[in-house]
Every structure is written in structure tokens, then in C-alpha cells.
Amino acid sequence: MKIPATVITGFLGAGKTTLIRHILANAKGKRIALIINEFGDLGIDREVVTGCGIEGCVDEDIIELANGCICCTVADDFLPTIEKLLANGRAPDHIVIETSGLALPKPLVKAFNWPEIRSRVTVDGVIAVVDAPAVAEGRFADDPDKVQSVREADDALDHHSPLEEVFEDQLLCADLVLLNKTDLLSPMALAKAGNIVRREVRPGVKVIETIGGVVDLSVLLAISAAAEDDLGNRPSHHDDDDDHGHDDFESFVVSLGDIADLAALERRIAAATIGHDILRIKGFVNVPGKPLRHVVQAVGPRVQRYFDRPWRDGEARRGELVVIGEAGLDRGAITRILGG
Q1: Crossing angle, helix 331-339 and helix 262-275, to 10 degrees?
Q2: Which one of 3.30.1220.10, 3.30.460.10, 2.60.120.10, 3.90.180.10 gives the CATH number of domain 248-339?
Q3: Separation of alpha carbons 263 and 170, rounded Å
Q4: Which of 150, 165, 239, 272 is most buried per CB count within 10 Å?
Q5: Do 3-233 and 248-339 have matching folds?
Q6: Global pTM exceeds 0.85
Q7: What is the pLDDT of residues 136-158, one digit of tens each?
Q8: CA 112, 114, 120, 122: dihedral to nearest 10 degrees?
Q9: Domain 3-233: CATH superfamily, name plus number
Q10: Which residue from 117, 101, 100, 96 is spatially nearest to 66, judged by alpha carbons?
């Protein structure tokens, strides 16, 4: 019997890591192996998961692939990782893969057809997590009529922006879509976001409205899609491309000293994202006098922060934020803003 694997995709800040924490907290004894892919230089998502305090969530069950998107490094990192999992004497009951927010899921699903994997693992389903407030604001999917009118007025804008292509490819590959953070929207805005997403998904794909990605695991981990056998029905903007377009994005790390005024840090993050093409900021800071590490995650001007775990003995109490955005970021200006 093949081991089922679930691929979790979704744009930056949509709530993928929160969904994974929900899955781990409700596994009920199921042995789940987690593979996290990072775009950037810090293993932020892995640290958030291992710092969650969930019983049974230990370092050796979590594997991180850093610096790039899984879909572009399947031969170098991803395939050996899967082979290592399969060679382990205690094979997992289920594999959960969190892709980078900038990754295209279809090439990753295609990798499951490699002979070393195909006989042992199947893609149970691809789950796309969508930031409903962002979609309602029109940030990642334009109204079709508006797009058409813009095209007619300016031939130079004939193609989708890179962000739209990534967003649409994630939806087109999905077997289930979680329209997340619905508690932040009015009924009218939620209906708007839902309509935009439903126009993009393939026929028959369900869109579920969620808060914090909370869905019963019998729905999340029992889709039985065998997605690797269904690639022809999952269209992509990049089906004819060897280059997946990730050079359109970049990331870098900003090191911070102690942060005593967290509200001021929030204001600086908002100022940086408004003034520059920043998609996501995530990382950790040290608050003087507090024994716990402070997590910071921002999508646009919206900032989420909380204390997650005690600083370990001997661990350097330094602040580091990963900044992810479109290529050409003014790193000096952003660093000055965030550093205060």
C-alpha cells in the first residue's frame, strides 16, 4: 500500500504553517512526516512548528529544505529526502509537504512519478490555502472584465503579473482550496473573495471557508486524488517553460538588536511594506526582560506576533527578519526602516 502525501500550497502568509500546526495537533497517533520548504535564509516555518509545544512534534520528524522552491530543486533536495524517509525503519503513515509561498505545485507533483518514489508514495491531494482578505482586496487576482479592458488599452500588459501566475497555478493544481482568515471579512467581502477563487479552480474542486485552517483531518488527509496520475488535468501557465519564474522574487535577512517597543516595530514593518514591494516579513526578535522568543509574521501591513517558546540555554538572543518580495528590493532602505 502506498504512503499518502499531501502537498500544501498557497501564497505567502495565507496560513500554511498554521494549518500544519492544526494537522499535527489533531493527528491522534498517526505518524506524520513533515517536509517544509523555505524561500529565504532562515528556517522560520520549521522553527514556528517545532516551537508550538504540541506533544510528539519533535525535530527528527521535521525536515527542512532551504533556499529555494521545491519545484526547482526536486533532484537535488526533495527526492533524496523522500528516499531517506522511505528507507527509515519506521515509515510514516502520511507525508505532509509545505511548499514555499512562491512555489508552483505542479512540478513537485510531477516528481512523484520518478521510479524511486512512484511505487511507494502517492499524492493524496494538493491543498491550496488562500488569504481571503488579500483576495477580497484584489491583490492576487483581478476581475476578468477589468483585465480585459486593460489589455485592450495597453498591449504591453497582455500577460499576467508573476504574482497572479503563481496564485493561479496554485489554485489550478489544487484538489481542495481553503479560503482562510474568513473571520477578518464582512459577508460582502467574503462573497467577493469566494467568487474570485471559484472562478479559478478546476471543475469539481471544493472551496471551504476556514478560520486558522481548521478542518477535520478526515477531509484534509483523505482526498485520494492520486494527483501524480492526473497532471494533464491540472493546467499551468508554465507548462511549456523550463524556467518557473522564481527569479521574479528575492529574499534577504535583516538583523535586529533587542526590541523593547513592539508597537514601534509594527509601525516600521507597515511603513516598509507600504513603501516597497515587500510580500512577506517573518522572523524572531528578542524582547529585553522576557524569557520567551517573540515571533513576527507580516503580510503587507498586517502584522501577527506572539511569544512562542523560551530561549534555549546558550542560544543567541538575536532578532532576525526574513524579507521576501519582488526582485529589485531596495535592501538598504528596507533595512534602515526596520532597524529604526
Answers
A1: 160
A2: 3.30.1220.10
A3: 34
A4: 272
A5: no
A6: no
A7: 988 763 333 443 454 455 443 34
A8: 20
A9: P-loop containing nucleotide triphosphate hydrolases (3.40.50.300)
A10: 100
